[in-house]
From TrEMBL:
A molecular function GO annotation: transmembrane transporter activity
One Pfam family named in its UniProt record: FUSC
Compartment(s) of residence: Cell membrane
Name of the featured protein: Fusaric acid resistance protein
Domain of life: Bacteria
InterPro entries: PHBA_efflux_AaeB/fusaric-R (IPR006726)
Primary location: membrane
GO cellular component: plasma membrane
Length: 733
């Protein structure tokens, strides 16, 4: 009996154990996190009530603010929250002592402080930004109510510290002791997956099995992985001593991965240009070396799975690297003999590609050696500083601070004019929302979703406060009444599309309906506070949408200019540590641009194209400057020599081109690069410098040639500025 086609085409059903295992790794982890957050909140509430704290709801709110799926994230966020709280308290005590009798000056000073802190939160990211958020928010939260009763400001400050500290301790304890999830485990998985993924990328790209869209997608994934890895590393150091001992190597591993991926992309692009321009002699001479690289990255034919396997791969790469210069020189001698019979062959093309191959092998070896060093607790490679410091554009951060200050001034003026009892709540909550939402990719939507969550929390809070609390007797019944409402908020916060709703619900349900030791049943005050909260969020959302919105094209253009200006810094900044800063800043800027253009694949692709151009030219420029900074021999190395002047002119022209691209600057960069190549070739032809010096001059010549080929790449975003196709574009010889 034949099977119907519709049944035959159906995929096989997943077995029950497999389905349960998949659920446990996805939704199961989310539900563990939800129950842990609720448990920590109830534990905090119980302890706060036993200690007879004035506002247990503040400690309970702190739990939902700092709670994260991983223990390291909780500890990191708690650390920065505590630091920000202390700074905010000190500043607010100063402001109260100065302006408590002058409401207008007090609101203005508070708005200025909140604006500065919001700018700091936007400038920094990850959990460092949270310290700035809390420094501003705490000042408003404590200062605005305390300013109305200055005699109790100091006691209010101490109470705030104790309640926040209790919430931090309980959240950290529950996260670390109850089904803990560690960022360190995520790092181990990422290191292993990224190394094997990069090896696979290298093998497939060198064999010609990847087209340009696949290469772009892979590199975009690498950028997201680099930024995420640094975020995980920065919180994993809070978890255990072992991770702290390896933190320097993990930072170095990230830096070396960036360098290796940049170098390989440059090599791959150069080989593609050589193929496109018919330079098959050079391609044929180098392809055997490429085929030898891939097997070196395996162990017994199997991919590298751990640090021990990486040590074996590093040993093979070290032997290959040691033999490579001699082999390259032998190949070069053979090709020199064929120049007369092959007029299309340019020896400079071979030198450039061979130099890039050697540099790539060197970077890959460093990457493998650092990976292998993770097998032991301590290692000499730990003693190396590679800082990855994410930074938002200073103008964009200043706009965020200015926006928060304007919002507070407008709402503060409304409060002073109307004398609305809940006006203070509206002002201080607007400060918190502006600071929190400013670091989100879509702050307008975030603030609007928080308003929706607060509306939901208002309805739930009225049911709890006026319907259930009067019937509660004892903490167990109180917990039973709160658990369903807290679970709802945490569930919403784990849904990607409803994060803002969940955050608004959890925080402001505790603010509105969190129980105190002495409960006050005041429906009018409850509704007034709820209206104030919702209005502050809606006004903040409107401010994000109207006052220089962060998703407007101006910010993307600003970040794109910052990305291009990394080449300018590569040409002009101090050389020491420049390569590491260049690698991290370019990836971080692309991550910011992609976040702003989340729904625009065309804009993301344009940014990725500029990243490729910046990495290729910028990396070559930095290598060139390192070679120039090396000690030279003889009068030919003096800064006033023609080839030195030509290179200085080239660096300036390239910097000007990437600062503000146009046709005239493109032509100037291309002309100056060609002139520098010609001057250096004249020097090498006319004189016979010592061997080491000649090799260094040839390396400088190769880097100049690569810069020229990168500028002439038809797939580069600089293509529109190149004008008509120039003869001799493939090479400069």
């Amino acid at each position: 009996m034949s099977t119907p086609a519709s049944l035959a085409d159906r995929p096989p059903r997943e077995s029950l154990p497999s389905a349960l295992a998949n659920w446990a790794q996805t939704e199961g982890l989310a539900w563990i996190y939800i129950f842990k957050a609720v448990l920590a909140a109830l534990l905090t509430l119980w302890i706060a009530m036993r200690l007879d704290m004035p506002q247990p709801r503040t400690a309970m709110t702190t739990v939902f603010v700092v709670m994260q799926p991983q223990s390291g994230m909780v500890l990191a966020k708690s650390f920065y929250r505590f630091c920000g709280t202390m700074v905010g308290l000190v500043v607010m005590l100063v402001l109260i002592s100065l302006f408590s009798q002058q409401p207008v000056l007090f609101i203005a000073a508070t708005a200025l402080w909140v604006g500065i802190c919001t700018a700091g939160a936007a400038r920094n990211r990850n959990f460092r930004s949270y310290g700035f958020v809390l420094a501003g928010y705490t000042a408003a939260l404590i200062g605005i109510p305390a300013a109305q009763h200055p005699d109790g400001a100091f006691l209010s400050a101490l109470t705030r510290v104790s309640e926040v500290s209790l919430g931090i301790v309980c959240a950290g304890a529950v996260s670390a002791l109850v089904f803990p999830q560690h960022a360190g485990e995520q790092i181990k998985t990422t290191v292993r997956r990224r190394f094997s993924g990069f090896v696979d990328y290298v093998c497939r790209a060198l064999s010609g099995q990847m087209d340009r869209p696949q290469i772009e997608a892979t590199n975009a994934a690498f950028v997201a992985d680099i930024v995420g890895f640094e975020a995980a590393r920065s919180v994993a150091v809070f978890e255990n001593p072992e991770t702290r001992l390896k933190s320097g190597r993990l930072a170095r591993l990230n830096s070396e991965f960036m360098s290796a991926s940049t170098r390989f992309h440059a090599l791959h692009q150069l080989m593609n240009r050589l193929r496109a321009n018919g330079s098959m002699t050079t391609v044929a001479a180098l392809e055997p070396y490429f085929r030898e690289v891939a097997p070196l990255l395996n162990k017994s034919g199997e991919p590298v799975l751990n640090a021990a396997d990486a040590a074996h791969a590093a040993a093979q790469l070290a032997a290959f690297k040691a033999a490579l210069p001699k082999r390259i020189r032998a190949t070069r001698i053979e090709l020199e003999a064929r120049r007369d019979t092959d007029p299309a062959f340019a020896l400079l093309e071979f030198d450039t590609a061979a130099e890039l191959l050697y540099r790539f092998v060197d970077d890959l070896l460093a990457y493998a050696e650092t990976y292998a060093s993770l097998a032991v607790p301590t290692h000499e490679r730990e003693h190396w500083i590679a800082r990855y410091v994410p930074r938002t554009n200073l103008v964009a951060a200043s706009v965020s601070g200015l926006r928060a200050m304007i919002v507070m001034l407008v709402l503060g003026a409304f409060w002073i004019e109307t004398a609305w009892p809940s006006g203070g709540t509206m002002v201080l909550n607007a400060a918190a929302v502006c600071a929190l939402a400013s670091s989100a990719p879509r702050p307008t939507l975030m603030a609007f979703q928080m308003a929706g969550g607060t509306l939901l929390a208002t309805v739930a809070g009225m049911i709890v406060v006026f319907g259930l609390y009067p019937r509660m007797d004892g903490f167990l019944l109180l917990s039973a009444a709160l658990i369903p409402f807290l679970l709802l908020g945490m569930f919403l916060s784990t849904r990607r599309s409803l994060v803002g709703v969940g955050v608004g619900y959890c925080i402001f349900f505790c603010f509105l309906a969190g129980p105190d030791n002495l409960t006050h049943y005041d429906p009018t005050g409850f509704i007034n506070d709820a209206i104030a909260l919702v209005l502050s969020m809606l006004f903040s959302s409107l401010a994000f949408a109207v006052l220089l919105p962060t998703d407007a094209p101006w910010l993307r253009r600003l970040l794109m200019r910052d990305l291009r200006r990394e080449v300018v810094l590569g040409c002009r900044a101090r050389v020491t540590g420049l390569a590491t800063r260049f690698e991290s800043r370019t990836r971080d800027l692309l991550s910011q641009i992609n976040a702003l253009a989340a729904d625009r694949p065309d804009l993301q692709r344009d940014a990725l194209q500029w990243l490729f151009a910046v990495l290729e030219v910028g990396h070559a420029v930095i290598d060139l400057r390192h070679e120039l900074a090396a000690p030279g021999v003889g009068a030919r190395e003096m800064s006033g020599t023609p080839w030195r002047r030509s290179i200085a002119t080239t660096l300036d022209a390239v910097a000007r081109l990437f600062d503000r691209p146009n046709t005239a600057r493109f032509d100037a960069a291309l002309t100056s690069t060609a002139q520098a190549i010609a001057d250096l070739q004249t020097l090498l032809d006319a004189e016979r410098p010592p061997r080491e010096e000649r090799h260094r001059l040839q390396r400088i010549l190769s880097k100049l040639h690569f810069i020229r080929t990168a500028l002439l790449d038809p797939q580069s975003p600089l293509g529109p500025y190149s004008g008509a196709q120039r003869p001799g574009a493939p090479h400069a010889s």
